[in-house]
Specification:
Immunoglobulin-like
C-alpha cells in the first residue's frame, strides 16, 4: 500500500460493539459442513457420477452398515436464554462450563456427574458474567474474566460461589492452576503467574511474551504463543527457559497426555509435543482446531464446526478416528478417563461417547448451489462412503452435479451412520447489494451506551467486531 492509499478522517467514530461470535465463524472454515434436510426427502437425480477422488464411476457401490465412531448423547440445559460458552473442564465429581450470557447473567455453570451420561444441573454464578477460561486445582476452581479479574470459586452442591477475586488487568486467554501456583495468558498482552495459598495469590510476576495458553506441571510451566511452545522451570520467583519448539498455525490451547502434550493450532491442526524432545507428530486436515483434551491415547478436538476424535496410539502420526457435527460451534471439550466427553458447544453443550467403531463421514462444500452447478462432497471418515451409487474413498471427494431444472432442496442418500441424507439448497441466500443502503441496527458499546446507525449519519464509522472468548 502506498501513501496515496491511506485515508485519514479526524471525524471517524470507532464503535467496539459486542456482537455474537457466530457472525464471524463462517469466515473461519471454508469447508463448513452442509445441513441435512429435516424431513429426509428421497434422493433425486443429481446427474452423472464423477470419479474425483479416484473412484471408478462405472463401479456399482453398495451402501455399508456402520456404527458411528462418536455417539452424541444428551444436550445439556444451561437454564439461560442466550448462553455463549468458551471453556469446559472436569472438577472432581462435577462438570464445569464457563462463558457468558449477554442479557442477564452467566459466568460459570456446574453439573453433578453422579450419572455421567446425564449430568444434573446444579447452578450458575449470577454476579460474574464473563468468565472466559477456567481451571481446577483439586479443591477449587479459578477463572479469568473478560474484565481482567482472576476469580476463585468453590463448587458446592447448589452451584459455584465466588470466594475471592484479584485484578490482573488482562483479558484471559488461558489459565492453569495447582496447589502451589496459578498462571494465565492474555494473548499479545502477555500473561502472568503467582504463588498461591488457599484463595489468595502472592505477588504477580509478568510473562513478557505472547501467551495464548499455559500449563503447570509441578515446577514446569508450559507457555504457548501462537506459533511457539516454550518450556520453563519455576525457580523461586523467577522462570528459567529450558527450550522451545516452533509450531504451525495459530495455536490456542494445550492439553497434557501421559507422554506428550497436545496443542490445538487452528488451521495448523493438532500437534503432539514430547516433553523433552520436541515435536512428535501432527494431524492437519479439513478441521480448524480451537481446543483439545486428551483421553488416554486419544485426542478430542473442539473444531468449531465439529467435535473431532484423533487416535494418537502412534504419537508420531496421529490419525482421524471420527467426527460429530456441532450443534452450533464447539469451543472447548472436557474428556474424562472413560469413553465420555463433554463438549462446550457455543450455546448448547452436549455429551458424546467414543465407540471405537469406524465409518464414513460425509460433508458437502456449500449449503447453497446454483441450478446446473457443482457441489463437492467429501468423505472425511475412515471407511469408503456410499453416495448415490458412487463409492468415495476416505479423504476423497466427488463432484455432485446439480440438475439444470433443480429447485428447492436437492438431496442424496448416504451410508454415513449419523447423516443418512446430504442436502444443498438451489439458489442463493439473500444478502446486501453493493451500493444499497446499510440496514439499521441498535447495539450497546462496552460501556452500556446504546448506539443506532441513524445517530451517526454523515460520519465515517469503523465497526470493530470481536468474538467473546
Amino acid at each position: 500500500m502506498s501513501t496515496a492509499d491511506l485515508v485519514y478522517s479526524s471525524t471517524m467514530t470507532t464503535l467496539h460493539l459486542r456482537l455474537p461470535a457466530l457472525l464471524l465463524f463462517g469466515c473461519t472454515d471454508p469447508l463448513a459442513p452442509g445441513k441435512a434436510a429435516q424431513d429426509s426427502p428421497p434422493p433425486v437425480d443429481s446427474g452423472p457420477a464423477d470419479d474425483t477422488g479416484g473412484t471408478d464411476p462405472t463401479e456399482v457401490a453398495l451402501p455399508g452398515t456402520w456404527e458411528d465412531p462418536i455417539l452424541a448423547g444428551v444436550a445439556l440445559s444451561l437454564e439461560v436464554a442466550h448462553p455463549e460458552l468458551t471453556d469446559a473442564l472436569l472438577a472432581g465429581d462435577q462438570l464445569v462450563f464457563v462463558g457468558q450470557e449477554q442479557d442477564t447473567d452467566g459466568g460459570m455453570w456446574t453439573y453433578s456427574l453422579a450419572d455421567p451420561d446425564a449430568p444434573a444441573f446444579l447452578g450458575h454464578t449470577t454476579n460474574r458474567k464473563h468468565i472466559q477460561r477456567a481451571c481446577w486445582d483439586g479443591s477449587q476452581a479459578w477463572g479469568m474474566t473478560r474484565e481482567g479479574m482472576l476469580v476463585t470459586l468453590s463448587l458446592g452442591s447448589a452451584g459455584p460461589t465466588v470466594l475471592q477475586e484479584s485484578s490482573v488487568g488482562q483479558v484471559g486467554t488461558g489459565i492453569s492452576c495447582d496447589a502451589s501456583h496459578v498462571a494465565w495468558g492474555a494473548g499479545v498482552n502477555g500473561g502472568g503467574w503467582a504463588e498461591r495459598e488457599g484463595t489468595w495469590i502472592g505477588p504477580i510476576h509478568n510473562l513478557n511474551m505472547e501467551v495464548e495458553d499455559v500449563r503447570l506441571e509441578g515446577d514446569r510451566l508450559w507457555v504457548l504463543a501462537r506459533n511457539r511452545l516454550t518450556a520453563m522451570d519455576i525457580e523461586g520467583e523467577t522462570l528459567v527457559e529450558l527450550g522451545h519448539v516452533d509450531l504451525d498455525g495459530a495455536c490456542l490451547d494445550i492439553a497434557p497426555g501421559e507422554r506428550w502434550l497436545a496443542v490445538a493450532c487452528g488451521s495448523g491442526g493438532v500437534t503432539l509435543v514430547d516433553r523433552g524432545d520436541g515435536q512428535l507428530g501432527q494431524w492437519q486436515a479439513w478441521a480448524s482446531a480451537r481446543a483439545v483434551s486428551v483421553q488416554g491415547s486419544f485426542v478430542w478436538v473442539a473444531a468449531w464446526t465439529d467435535l473431532v476424535l484423533l487416535d494418537a496410539a502412534d504419537a508420531t502420526a496421529p490419525v482421524f478416528a471420527g467426527a460429530e457435527q456441532a450443534l452450533s460451534s464447539v469451543m472447548s471439550v472436557a474428556a474424562g478417563e472413560d469413553d465420555r466427553v463433554y463438549a462446550a458447544d457455543w450455546n448448547q453443550p452436549f455429551v458424546a461417547t467414543r465407540t471405537g467403531a469406524s465409518a464414513p463421514e460425509v460433508r458437502v462444500s456449500t449449503e447453497w448451489v446454483s441450478a446446473g452447478g457443482l457441489a463437492t462432497v467429501y468423505n472425511h471418515g475412515t471407511e469408503a462412503l456410499w453416495i448415490d451409487g458412487v463409492s468415495v474413498a476416505p479423504n476423497g471427494s466427488w463432484a455432485w452435479e446439480i440438475a439444470e431444472d433443480a429447485v428447492g432442496t436437492v438431496s442424496l442418500a448416504t451410508d454415513d451412520p449419523d447423516e443418512p441424507t446430504v442436502s444443498v439448497e438451489v439458489g442463493g441466500p439473500a444478502g446486501l447489494v453493493v451500493g444499497a443502503a446499510a440496514p439499521g441496527f441498535s447495539e450497546p458499546d462496552l460501556y452500556g451506551e446504546l448506539w443506532e446507525l441513524s445517530m451517526l449519519h454523515g460520519e465515517v464509522v469503523f465497526l470493530a467486531l470481536f468474538s467473546d472468548g
